[in-house]
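Field: COMPLEX_INPUT
Field: COMPONENT_COUNT = four
Field: RESIDUE_TOTAL = 684
Field: MODE = joint
Values follow.
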Amino acid sequence: MSSRVTLADVARRAGVSRTAASFVLSGRTDMRIASATRERVLAAADELGYRPNLTARGLRTNVTGTIGLISDTIATTPYAGEVIKGAADTAFKHDRLIFVAETSGDPNVERDLLQEMLDRQVDAFLYAAMFTQSRQPPELLRGYPVVLLNCVAESFDAPTVLPDETEAGATAARALLDAGHIERIHVIGGRHDTTETPGGVVAGRERMAGINAALAKVGTAPASVTECVWHAPKYGYRAVSELLGHARPSALICFNDRLAFGAYQALHDHGLRVPDDVSVVSFDDSDLASWLRPALSSVALPHYELGTTAVTLLVENRREPGQVRVPMPLRARASIGPPATT
Amino acid sequence: MSSRVTLADVARRAGVSRTAASFVLSGRTDMRIASATRERVLAAADELGYRPNLTARGLRTNVTGTIGLISDTIATTPYAGEVIKGAADTAFKHDRLIFVAETSGDPNVERDLLQEMLDRQVDAFLYAAMFTQSRQPPELLRGYPVVLLNCVAESFDAPTVLPDETEAGATAARALLDAGHIERIHVIGGRHDTTETPGGVVAGRERMAGINAALAKVGTAPASVTECVWHAPKYGYRAVSELLGHARPSALICFNDRLAFGAYQALHDHGLRVPDDVSVVSFDDSDLASWLRPALSSVALPHYELGTTAVTLLVENRREPGQVRVPMPLRARASIGPPATT
DNA sequence: CCGTCGTGCTAAATCGAGTTAGCACACAGC
DNA sequence: GCTGTGTGCTAACTCGATTTAGCACGACGG
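Field: COMPLEX_OUTPUT
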């Protein structure tokens, strides 16, 4: 709380001008400074505990060392905090801080928030959605360094960071293939079109493609694909209950852990055991996956890595548009076993 | 991206000095400005789309309109994002932005992060823990406006925002009493001492006190209290399985939803139905509560409100130390019914 | 006609850095 | 001795706001 040490204080103590002190401390070499002077300045700065005032520097140089994270909503998905943590940690490693703000999907709020950030001379922006979707960044953002996180934008050129959903689908399928399943693999919660998500939710579409590709490679295909209206457990329960009315699956690929939770309940109600009778693999790797009995194998959403990757792109000032895909690793648990020997 | 409109531009267009423009636009009345001039300045600002550069203002006034949120870790608890959202939303309502940073519990990281914030002239701080605990804020923080969020600090005077755990305990107990339970109410996951949490985890201790008080008021008490080592479902499963070996509970109060999840599994394995045979009430109201079958009644942790309340205190510049308790509402669901008529 | 007061504004300093232009001095070469 | 060339530094300006001190003018009283 005591008044800050300024560059002028350092210069005075070292017996040089502010100019000289500034050149030494910002490490610039295009001005000749005698090494003895250099040492004196550095010593003075050290003794006084000098820290440059970044507000003042920002005013002069237009560089504030801050990144703005603008997302539709952090809160609705419980693990989005990980994205923020990944972003904040990486930013900090590069001496940057992160402003976090949410628009709740309101374009007016979005504009005002962005304006507040611009007023504070934020250097660069993370434009994020909390589940993969198509979004239109505000016009105000044009011309600034931006990385799109977990969303795609048609008419906005910027690097885009996305989970590798296609490969994730293949990973899930291969986990079952490796355990010996090949026929009667059913998919719960496949691609799903709505007016809001034409062509299906991005993640769903890609996961499906990955699953199909991996299965096709060994000459097979999903025995059925059941779309679910929504991803709460009860929809998984319904879908699987119905499925069990007319089929006898060897394995289930559920599109997320909540659906898998519902699937577990339905299997249980039908007297089927996981993984003895039916193997289950899922996506997201939420906490739920490790809580279920038996623990659920799930292909993890790389929340933390999405954050770190996006900030790294910003810090390195990569501007070429294009997608960076972050791997989704399989967390293998007890829910996958060999096919039942019926 | 086009070069910003500055105060000088506005002044020029209005045909006045920067001084006059500044006084008009910052709404100060201690200098006499003719109302015709006022109007001209406002019109000019409006036409040019003037926005004050907050970096420049910050340099001059030492007020940047930023709040620093320093927490041990956002990521380990999935709903902590809500705290951030509450804080960010409220900050935005007051034209402030929030820097979010995590220390991962490392005091060196904490110090460096704080220093980065101070270098950017952050106005005020939220010092937060993601589950209620005792923490020691760094010395650097002394003298700045600070609100403690979800943590208590002995030798650091600052307003403190905490969930009202005691009342929450009473709420849970009353929910059972209201349904007719009075005997054979068992507690799963009571107060629990460790070297890290002497006297027990704050929340646990207080919830227990609230439960005891509410039950005592009608002349009863918990039939038993089982401490759990950790809060994963399997510990709840174990605790309840063991309990069922020698007791026949009428209702269970679980210390959080994960334990309740384990409790459900144990009850199910013993052929007991919720709520027909045993009622269950819990704390936290995570997503899990609404996913379980039957849906779990749970006393909600007010994450969002913790964030809003803390920022409100900061913005209003309340400095008196003391605790503000945020209510924890009961989310009543299907897991509570009348006592079984054995 | 002079002093006083109130009104309405401006010039200039300030915050703490970064940056441009150029000065003072030493030394070498002729 | 005079010029030219580095070397090593400083004075002064700049970023875009806020803020202090004070000026110019008209009205009014005596």
